Amino acid sequence: MKFIAKSILSSLAIFTSLSVCNAALETRIINLKDRYVEKGNIVTLKARGQFKKASGWTDIDSEYLNFTILSNDRIMFSKRSKISFWDGNAMINVNTSNFAPGNYKINLKFEGNLDLLPSEANARLIVLV
Q1: Does residue 17 sit within a domain?
Q2: In contact, 106 and 122? CB cutoff 8 Å
């Protein structure tokens, strides 16, 4: 009987710790800024992914951010970039040669995983003549 009781308690402890460990953490994308660039120039877009721990925000590493540039909901550019272990940033270069002068929406997404919730951020790319 003691063996059965210990087995049940062990199973309960494992189940409880598994459900606590699988709670997804809040994430955010920071440092994505509006950018102004002359048509034909290359612009570097950079952002940082973070997740919230009890002690505060800390950098996400070795995950991906998806950069998309849109014009009236039409995708003009899309690229996935890995978040750097060293500085928490993901970065891409965009050649604006094929962009007409105007305003574009920069959409950045972190898709999340079992441990981290998804997040999204937006900014503007303004291509000048």
Answers
A1: no
A2: yes
